[in-house]
Amino acid sequence: MKLPILTAFTALTVFTAASPTPQAIPGTQCCLIVGSQDDGSPVADVLKIVGDILTLVSDIITLATDTTSLMAIDCVSASNSSCASGMTMVEDCTGSTGRRSTNESRIREAYDTDPASVRLQNDEGLSPLHLAAELHLLNIVQTLLALPTESGVLEDLVARDNAEGLTPVEFCERRLRQMREENRDWKEHPLEGLQVAFTLRQATGQAGLGTEDDFITRHRWGCTCGNCAGGWLSERMRDRLRAQAQQVLDISQSNSLNKFIPPDIVSDINRSGQGPQYMLGFVAVIVAILAALGFQGEDGLPTPENVRALLARENGQVALLFFSRGGRVEDGLRWVIWHTMKQSPLGDGSFDERQEGCTYEGRDIGPVNQEWAALPYCANDLDFRLVVRKMGLPDNEPLGPYN
């Protein structure tokens, strides 16, 4: 059932009995118009019906309660100045135990009064479950899903009869992706958004979902393929890094290591005549990075800790002078990441051309690499900023060569 709506808005609006205070949800096109109860607590329902009486008059929806308060979500256009002003996010009902229980009661009371109310769609075809999923309101999602089966809310889990043809979990996960794309300083997905995604997927009976903790670990850092080691290193990124690390065995490529040695160390080893021994240690570091990338799971993460552990077991003596002169695993990681990025689509794309069987610099470079073609795609495949951060490289140092 779809409800008519004010033409001035693109989604449901409920007006407060008191003076409304619009507040924007950062990164969305949604504003909350919040009224205060006598006790001063904010209200953050996504239900269209928050009271006992539902009156439809022409194109206006009026939701009335006992005059204490009313709340609404006003999804307006991006040009609306109140939404673009950067106001702080209104507190939702998960903020405290008191508000949580109050809103749970309000939802159940609405259902008891009119069971159909919990599935009423707005002008865009969105049910309360769709709206709560997109806004990452975990408590509202849980409360709606806990209603009796005859409420029909579970049917909304797979409902696509809305303007965008998306299910609640698709709205939820699209918003997670948008938050990442819109924020240059994005570091990880918000916990509540991931909890909503898990709750919705679990409710649909998705197989192989695992525990909530497992799900959050797999997707916290933006993995969309489900195969990222540690939740952040995708298989395609791993292959890129491994291919570059192998280049250290080519003497013409290993010469570029010189540019990744801090200038003060270069002066020191040149004065002492220990340059060749130092470079052997540097090569040993890259070989250890290559070895780490060959493992699966957490052991296959080329973090400084894992690389040092491998060096200690395999090439401890070779790398001894390297470390004694101030050498760092981080410099080896920078060399690998920098050159990998240069050959990716963010650079000249030469690595991808070699894998995809194209020509490179006018030469036929052979057939498609079938192993590469079979690897799953992931949102983390080209996120070098994420790799730098998760490998523990200093944020205040340049990624490229020192000179």
UniProtKB/TrEMBL annotation:
Asked if the record carries the keyword Manganese, the reply is no
Q: What keywords sit in the KW lines?
A: ANK repeat, Signal
Membrane-crossing segments per the record: none
Outline the ANK repeats, range by range.
Answer: 124-156
**Range of residues in the leader sequence:** 1-18
Q: Please give the name of this protein.
A: Uncharacterized protein
